[in-house]
Amino acid sequence: MVLKDRVAIVTGGSSGIGRGICLEFAREGACVVVADVQETPKRGKYHEKDITTPTAVEIENTGGRALFVECDVSEEASVHHLIDRAVAHFGKLDILVNNAGIFKPGDSQSLVMADWDRIVGVNLRALFLTMKYAIPHLKKSKTGRIVNIASVHAFHGGGGPAYAPAKAGVVNMTRDIAMELGSHGITANTVCPGYIETPIQDYLTEADIQHCLDKTPLPRLGKPRDIGRACVFLASDDAEWITGVALPVDGGWLAPIGIL
Ligand code: NDP
């Protein structure tokens, strides 16, 4: 168990990738704070159709320790409450995973300003908020870790004029935080998922999903566990000298030289 007794907050932990990260952290012995706007897992049109047990309940059912805290990561007071509640319950904080994110399709003409603000607010601004309030506690840990979830869209256009720049911003904000926190022994890294089977994909058609599969060199789509294992590694002692990196976990999606 490489995360035994470490205390981790995972935002957006009720569904999808966040749930996968929570379950893998718990499997490795971590105490997990599941932070989300709702406790009930989201059920997708294509993926996670049958998941009904809340993440924290699932962890406790298998002998782990977990706490659900309702939190909207875009609200400063809500984030402040989350960090206070986590530390009050488990006594410390070792790991912060900023996973909560939203996507809304649209281009420069169809996306209204309120959508742009919301997408950037949840996918980028919120990470600044959680880090701001978590860092004083991470500095007290001997194994402080920040793992931020971006996307393969951080590196190229095609994710829309709000989502793609927000995710690119996550990669660079993480590098900056890595520099700020290096002297405290805290690492900060980004994981950039390719297509992962979660409810966020509900906006796609079945043909779109087949296209993603066809473009992925490894012959399957990603699962929340794939991102969970990468986060376990980055949060573990094995990654103690890795900081400021952006790690694609994408089945090889970014490997080709261009779009063919
Ligand atoms: P899901 O929509 O499946 O799950 C996201 C979870 O975050 C949901 O439980 C959602 O709640 C919650 N959430 C949304 N907004 C907030 C908020 N303001 N505060 C707290 N929680 C919130 O998405 P994924 O699991 O697929 O995505 C997780 C992360 O991975 C995101 O950052 C996403 O951009 C990124 N990503 C995902 C990829 C994929 O293929 N799945 C690919 C690349 C990146 P609610 O139920 O209300 O929506």
CATH topology: Rossmann fold
The end-to-end distance, rounded to whole angstroms, is 42 Å
Q: Compute the number of strand runs.
A: 7
Number of domains: 1
Tell me the major beta sheet: 7 strands, parallel
Number of helices: 7
Strand content: 5-15%
Strand order of the largest sheet: 3-2-1-4-5-6-7
> Under the CATH scheme, which architecture would be assigned?
3-Layer(aba) Sandwich
Helical residue percent band: 25-40%
In CATH, what is the class?
A: Alpha Beta
**Radius of gyration over C-alpha positions, nearest whole angstrom:** 17 Å
Ligand identities: NADPH dihydro-nicotinamide-adenine-dinucleotide phosphate
- Categorize the overall geometry: globular
Q: What pattern of helices and strands is seen along the backbone? A: EHEHEHEHEHEHHE
Q: In terms of per-residue confidence, which ranges show pLDDT below 50 for 5 or more consecutive residues?
A: none
Superfamily at the CATH H level?
Answer: NAD(P)-binding Rossmann-like Domain
Q: Taking all residues together, what is the mean pLDDT? A: 97
